[in-house]
Amino acid sequence: MADTKKYGWNVQIDGVQYLVEYMKGSIFINGGEAFKLRSLERTGTLRKDKQLNYTVPLAGKELNLVISAVSGISLIMDGMDLGTYPDGAGANQKAPAWTVVFYVLYFIDYWGIMGGAVGGAIGGLLLGTAAVVTFMVAKSEKLSTGVKLVICIALYVVATALELVIRSALVGVSGRYR
Hints:
Blueprint: E1 7-13, E2 16-23, E3 26-29, E4 34-36, E5 41-43, E6 51-58, E7 61-68, E8 72-77, E9 80-81, H1 99-112, H2 120-139, H3 145-176
Antiparallel strand pairs: 1-2, 2-3, 3-4, 5-6, 6-7, 7-8, 8-9
Helix pairs in contact: 1-2, 1-3, 2-3
């Protein structure tokens, strides 16, 4: 692990704030003495499992440092990625109210363009996936509201265009067998 980048997470346990940092195979808590990863309990292998999990004990809790070949390095506490939701508040954050507009549009698309049963599973899968991605983008704390709206509008346009292509293909195929 020749990673020289420093990773840091603010962890709050029982009202006490801790700074947990990872760099060059060591864990630092509040800038104190380094704990080598070799000294911590480990599960998984990069070669077979594509990730390593280290158990980091802190103030009666067990944190999991995950080093993944796919998604990078993250710290997990109580099943929550502290990099995504640093203070734990984001995990319960509701999506903005404007996402309802997109859900209504996806619903209208499914029943209006695909005709419900005509498009069936293909249209439902496409629009369901688009609705889930819309929700994930809307909840993102790393993007501004304007950027979120642009991404969601683009997603809606692309999903609708794909749906129209699928619809015309289905109509063309069904017309041949009459």
